[in-house]
Design brief:
alpha+beta, 6-stranded antiparallel beta sheet, 4-stranded antiparallel beta sheet, about 25% strand
Length: about 300
């Protein structure tokens, strides 16, 4: 079965399952890094928010040998599992005096999101873009956010500079930074859950020195690479190491930091590209570049 046939048949079958109790539709959704996915939604009159189910991933399961009927069962089960128990009050988003306390920033790749950025307030940062969203913690599907677009600024009567000032205050409070040594991370987690932490690729270490790699993110592991913008976080770690830092973008959710004496920038850049290609899903890739934080100047640049 081709993907188009799979999509059409899945849509028809699920609509038949719910009958007149729901409206089932598929829309193309552009996610981070211009990744385009087909999102299936099941809208029932009794709820005002519904999970989006990406058919592309279920088609992969079908190609891997799972029966089509079993795939349909999983789609319906996923919808029912993630459906909120009650309606969510989203009116706060139209009230700037309420929404402003939820505004945070995150980092995405600039060139990979060039088209989307035309409609989004943003600031350029090296080869990245600082964008803004309204953070919704503890939704039925976990943490979520509403991406802020240009028309929201018009509605709220604010500027992008005001948005940035709010996010600088809010983000470290709503998403505090979290710094752990790679050794501690691997002690309590599956090594394969970290791209750079798996045994597949070994980080270069300075001869005769123990590893000094640290994973830097936020406590929710939600677009945690943005912690490099938090005031004083990198300065604190660089002071601790008494060294400039190399920053490796593990994903949009975390970075890896190590003293500059621990690695060669060309080798580190090769490693980042290889890991992005083989271990990080396309929509979670941040950059193929390695960055250097200068302890003396407090500035970050592409290494």
């Amino acid at each position: 079965m081709t993907y188009e046939n799979f999509k059409t048949t899945a849509l028809s079958s699920i609509q038949t399952y719910f009958g007149d109790n729901a409206s089932v539709s598929v829309h193309q959704i552009v996610r981070n890094n211009n990744v385009r996915l087909d999102g299936l939604t099941i809208e029932e009159a009794s709820v005002n928010i519904t999970p989006t189910i990406y058919l592309n991933y279920y088609y992969d399961d079908y190609l891997a040998g799972k029966p089509f009927s079993a795939v349909l069962d999983e789609i319906i089960a996923s919808y029912q599992k993630n459906l909120p128990d009650q309606n969510m009050d989203l009116t706060f988003f139209t009230d700037y005096n309420k929404a402003k306390y939820h505004i945070i920033f995150k980092l995405i790749n600039y060139s990979q999101n060039a088209d989307s950025l035309k409609e989004i307030p943003h600031f350029r940062f090296l080869d990245l873009a600082v964008v803004f969203c309204c953070f919704l913690p503890d939704t039925p599907n976990g943490n979520a956010s509403i991406l802020i677009q240009n028309h929201h600024l018009d509605f709220w009567h604010i500027t992008a500079d005001s948005l940035y000032e709010l996010a600088v205050k809010n983000t470290p409070i709503l998403l505090p930074y979290d710094l752990k040594s790679m050794e501690d991370v691997l002690r309590y987690a599956d090594p394969d859950s970290l791209s750079f932490g798996s045994g597949k690729m070994q980080m270069p270490n300075a001869p005769g020195k123990p590893p000094a790699m640290y994973v830097l993110s936020n406590t929710e592991r939600y677009y945690g690479a943005a912690v490099i913008l938090y005031p004083q976080v990198l300065a604190f770690f660089a002071d601790l190491q008494e060294s400039d830092l190399y920053i490796l973008p593990s994903s949009v959710h975390e970075i890896i930091a190590l003293p500059a004496v621990m690695g060669d920038p060309a080798e580190l850049a090769r490693l980042v590209k290889e890991v992005n290609r083989d271990c990080v899903c396309p929509e979670e890739r941040l950059s193929d570049h390695v960055y250097r934080y200068c302890l003396e100047s407090g500035q970050i640049q592409i290494a």
